[in-house]
Every structure is written in C-alpha cells, then in structure tokens.
Amino acid sequence: MSSNMVHLTEDEINSAMELKLPVPNHVSEEYYVDPDIGPPLRVYLAIEAGTVGQDLSELDQYYNLYLWNCKFTKAFRDKFNNDYGIEQQNEKMLEYAPEVDWAVMEEIHNSTLGPYDPQ
Fold first, then answer.
1. Is 1 within a domain?
2. Cα distance between residue 51 and residue 49, in whole Å
C-alpha cells in the first residue's frame, strides 16, 4: 500500500475488530456480528467513531475509512455477491471525498476491489 498513507497499527486493527460498539441505526446488526463481514465493518465504524486512529491526520483517517469500507465491500461481495447499496457507499465516499491524493484512493480501491469499472 502507498507510502503516502499512514495506516492503523496492527493493535488498533485487532482492537477494533474485537470492539462491540453499539450498532448504529444505519448498520445491520446481522452484518455487524457476522464472522466474515463484521470485522472490517467494525474497524470502519471504530475509525468513524474515533475509537481508533485518533493520532492520524484527518486525511489519513479518511484514507483508512475508505480502505476499510472497501475491505467490507470485498468481504460482502465474497459472501453475498454484489449489493447495490453496499457498492453505492463506495461511490459516495469518492463523490464526497475531501482534498485527497487520487492516486492513493485508486491504489486502495485496486488493492481491495480490483480495478475500477464504472459499469
């Protein structure tokens, strides 16, 4: 992964995967506790809630949010096939991204989901 992005530490990732935060209203509890798709979802939510990654810059937090959202999407695809709502979340993150290095975003996407195909 890019040297232009600061990642969560292994301890932060492991901690977040084990966290049992209250499930936000917009998240399916079934997904949250699922052994395959729950861990990347919990990391995403822990970053979003500020439970992990507090020492990262706002930009690196965003890159990590996008990374873990892509990992969740990949796990979801592998388990259930594609879901438009799940895929749309990735699109929204790209559409509403702050000032980012698009090469980093592309690298995250390609390393988790494969090359971008707008179809």
1. no
2. 6
Q: Is the pTM of this model over 0.85?
A: yes
Element (H, E) at 111: helix 102-113
Taking a C-beta distance cutoff of 8 angstroms, is the pair 116, 110 a contact?
Answer: yes
What six digits make up the tokens of 3? 């040297």
Please tell me the distance from the alpha carbon of residue 10 to that of residue 8, in angstroms, as a whole number. 7
Q: Which long-range contacts (CB under 8 A, 24 or more apart) does 72-76 make?
A: 72/37, 72/40, 72/41, 72/44, 73/112, 73/113, 74/40, 74/112, 74/113, 75/36, 75/37, 75/39, 75/40, 76/31, 76/37
pLDDT digits (tens, 9 = 90+) for 22-52: 788 888 888 999 999 999 999 999 999 999 9
Number of independent structural domains in the chain: 1
Give Cα separations from 21 to 18, 24, 83 (angstroms): 9, 8, 25
Q: Which domain holds residue 89?
A: 10-113
4 domain-assigned: no
